């Protein structure tokens, strides 16, 4: 008798839980318009990521160019000709 009561109690507790679980697993199908909207949004996000990456690369290139220009501007150029000596092929010194 106790066994039957225990089964009845357990089943009365578990059966209500089984119903909502089934309902939660079945999702409505997405409409063609919703699929198209998601695809468009996905493409826009991908293009935005590419644009951000291109902008980052351009910024890094500009930074490197500025560093090179600054280095050329402030570096001491090595003398190509020694003082008192004419370069080869020169007509006058």
How does this structure look, described?
- By secondary structure, the chain is mostly helical.
- The chain has a domain at 34-72.
- 72% of the residues lie in helices and 0% in strands.
- It has helices at 2-25, 32-74.
- The mean pLDDT is 82.
Reconstruct the topology from this structure.
Layout: H1 2-25, H2 32-74
Search tags:
single chain, 93 residues, mainly alpha, 2 helices, 72% helix
Give the H and E element order.
Answer: HH
| SS strand fraction | under 5%
Q: Estimate the helix proportion, in percent.
A: over 70%
Distance between the termini: 124 Å
Q: Whole-number radius of gyration?
A: 39 Å
Mean pLDDT across every amino acid position:
82
Total count of strands: 0
Number of helices: 2
Uncertain segments are none
Sketch the major β-sheet.
none
Structural class: mainly alpha
Shape assignment: rod-shaped
């Amino acid at each position: 008798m106790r066994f039957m009561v225990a089964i009845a109690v357990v089943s009365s507790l578990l059966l209500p839980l089984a119903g909502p679980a089934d309902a939660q697993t079945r999702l409505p199908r997405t409409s063609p318009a919703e699929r198209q909207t998601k695809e468009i949004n996905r493409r826009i996000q991908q293009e935005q990521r590419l644009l951000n990456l291109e902008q980052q690369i351009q910024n890094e290139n500009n930074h490197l160019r500025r560093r090179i220009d600054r280095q050329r501007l402030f570096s001491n150029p090595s003398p190509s000709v020694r003082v008192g000596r004419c370069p080869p092929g020169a007509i006058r010194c």
